[in-house]
Here is the input.
Amino acid sequence: MTLTCGSGDWHRRQREAGIVHRLLGLTGYAANPRNIGLSDLPDLADAIFDLHNDSQQAAAAHRWAEDAQRCRMA
Here is the structure.
C-alpha cells in the first residue's frame, strides 16, 4: 500500500504514530524507578521495563535498517 502525503490514510498513520510515540515515552518514564514507585507491583514493573527495552531495541533496529538502505542508495 502506497501512502500519498496528505491523503486520509497518511494523516491517520501520522496520528497513530504520534500516539504510539507518546505511549512509548510514558512507558520509558514509568520504567525509570526514580519516576514511579512500583515496588509493591513487581510484575507490572517487570512488564513495563520489558516493554520499554523491546521498543528501544526495535527502534534501534529500524534506524539501522534505514541507515543501511541510505548507504545502498548513495
